[in-house]
Design brief:
The protein contains 3 helices and 9 strands; from the N terminus they run E-E-H-E-H-E-E-H-E-E-E-E. The chain has 146 residues and is α+β, with helices and mostly antiparallel strands. It folds into 2 domains: 61 residues, Ribosomal Protein L9, domain 1 (3-Layer(aba) Sandwich), CATH 3.40.5; 80 residues, Ribosomal protein L9, C-terminal domain (Ribosomal Protein L9, domain 2, Roll), CATH 3.10.430.100. The strands form 3 sheets. It has a 4-stranded mixed beta sheet. The protein has a 3-stranded antiparallel beta sheet with strand order 2-1-3, with helices on one face. Strand 8 and strand 9 form a beta hairpin. 14% of the residues are buried.
């Protein structure tokens, strides 16, 4: 008997999956406890719509990420910081500061965890990689000055 799982079941499948189980297991355990529902025409149609919606959402996110990567790729971000006499910074330029500066300058929201850069502790220009989406990256330059 085919059922659609309403929650994750260890050894059987994840929520939203269509699985084939024995009739007794479905009728006596899964369905009464609302762990699964019968895979009738209405439920199958709803499952298909949910999968199509999820695929559309992922396509929209990927398109937005590609647009952001194209806009940011090769750009230079200027960050001002205080330093000592030899050009060594008091502290360092963090990925959080870089993400905030990108949001301020370009209006693109990047999570600080997706900013990959070396340790910036002195004036100069540094390369920085932004992991915008799975498989989509952008290379920017960070110019640190006063």
């Amino acid at each position: 008997m085919k059922v659609i799982l309403n929650q994750d079941v260890k050894g059987l499948g994840k929520k939203g999956e269509l699985v084939n189980v024995s009739d007794g297991y479905a009728k006596n355990y899964l369905v009464p406890r609302k762990i699964a529902s019968f895979a009738d025409a209405a439920a199958m149609n709803e499952l298909k719509n949910r999968e199509a919606s999820k695929a559309y959402q992922l396509a929209q996110e990927k398109a937005a990420a590609e647009k952001a990567a194209a806009e940011l790729n090769g750009k230079t971000i200027r960050i001002s910081a205080k330093a000592g006499a030899n050009g060594r910074l008091f502290g360092s330029v963090t990925s959080k500061e870089i993400a905030e500066k990108i949001k301020e300058d370009y209006g693109i929201d990047i999570d600080k965890k997706r900013v990959v850069t070396e340790d910036i502790r002195s004036f100069g220009t540094y390369e920085c990689t932004l992991k915008i989406y799975s498989g989509i990256t952008a290379l920017i330059y960070i110019m640190v000055g006063e």
